[in-house]
Amino acid sequence: MHPSAHLLASAPDQLLPARELMAFTLASHIILVPLGVALPLITLVMHYRGLRHNDATALLLARRWSAVMAVQFAVGVVTGTVLSFEFGLLWPGMMGRWGDVFGIGFGVEAWAFFLEAVLIAIYLYGWRRLKPRTHFLLGLPLPAAALLGAFGILAANSWMNTPRGFSLDARGNPTDVNIWKAIFTPMFGPQYWHFVVAMLLTAGYMVAGVYAVGRLRGRRDRYHRLGFTVPFTIAAVATPVQFVLGDSIARSVFHKQPVKFAAMEVVWKTDTRVPEYLFGRLHSDGSVSGGIKIPLLDSFLAGFSPDTEVVGLTSVPPDQRPTAVQATIAHWAFDIMVLIGSALVLLALWYGLVWLRHRRLPASKWFYLGAACAGPASVVAVECGWIATEVGRQPWIVYQNMRVAEAVTATHSSTLWTMFGLVIVVYLFIFGSLLAVLLKLRTRWRLADARSAGRPGDEPEADGPYGPRAAVPAGDGVTPSRGDRP
């Protein structure tokens, strides 16, 4: 029997359902994270533009985006809370032994959630109730609160990748905990900034994609142009920055987690002049089938020289490295992320060149098709980044200190599969409700714009956030909220 087959056979029965449940909830939650982290900043940029230029259209967009921000935050709190419980329920071995070392990250995230909830409530309340300048200033802490939440969760995850800040006693339990070293581990900086910029460009492309679709459907009014331009510009500026940060974090993994790097690049034996494989499948004998092989490139990308030595998977025993299947999964996730990132760089360059040369938006239908796809593609890239990070670390849940199998719950596998099924049903309801609310908001806003456009001399944007709203004609089938009444 091959060593990897022996490892799978000796794994506890509950390991697979626990992994599947955690993977599903994390993959679901991460769809909301870009908007949770970056939409406050994008909204405030639009808000600032509206105040600076006395632009009613920009203020209207900012107000509407703040409503979306609140809805997705409410759902994100639910899915994020489920993840927090799962850490304790599914992985008690890790939390019981290591919670005192890295648990501060989860504490920071929890406080950031509470702070952001209060700030979002104040920001929503402020439309039409506070002076414009005061309202904007009260919204400024929102991006900082969002970044604080990201700080907490990235501190915990980077510690799992490069654990620091403790000593081990004779029984292998952590002692002499140094909180600062546990937070600011070698992978924290590269992971944090790579994540934050990823959230910024993903949220920018997601928001701009809505208006790109509107453009493709013939809506070319100023409302749609501005709604597209501001978030897309933010995302386009962030994209080449992210490409550089992505290269930096890959180099950090090469130095700090060489076995994970070997899995991501399907390198079997330690060697120099290592080729780069685009996709392809790693087999248990070390061979790679399929994909595109580029000689010398992996060594060159790792150390800017074909003579750079790249550590292979066989540098450690089989029970301390990912299996061939896990390495292939990490490799494909990494390659898909890089492929999407490269396509987004080209899209951003297209946008920038047209703007610099002609001082206008691109006119090509193909550009807006690409912009409409950029949001979903960015979410896929974020998902792939997490897959590469987590699967490439296998079999460790705490790198070189605790295996995943040691941390998993003792709950019977059938119970975990039942929980998994229930979570899927609940999440379908949650995300279905989110979609229904967003569609309801869209319909309401379109009706409001149509009413405003029907008045001679008015445009859809005329009903600004800091002025009295137009009365809703009786019998139009729409019940105004308190904020919609004159």
Automatic annotation (TrEMBL):
Domain of life according to the entry: Bacteria
Species of origin: Streptomyces poriferorum
Keywords (A to Z) from UniProt: Cell membrane, Electron transport, Heme, Iron, Membrane, Metal-binding, Transmembrane, Transmembrane helix, Transport
TM ranges: 21-46, 67-89, 101-124, 136-156, 192-214, 226-245, 329-354, 366-388, 416-439
Subcellular location, record wording: Cell membrane
Protein family: Belongs to the cytochrome ubiquinol oxidase subunit 1 family.
Membrane-related topology note: Multi-pass membrane protein
Disordered: annotated segments: 450-486
Classification via InterPro entries: Cyt-d_ubiquinol_oxidase_su_1
Annotated protein name in UniProt: Cytochrome ubiquinol oxidase subunit I
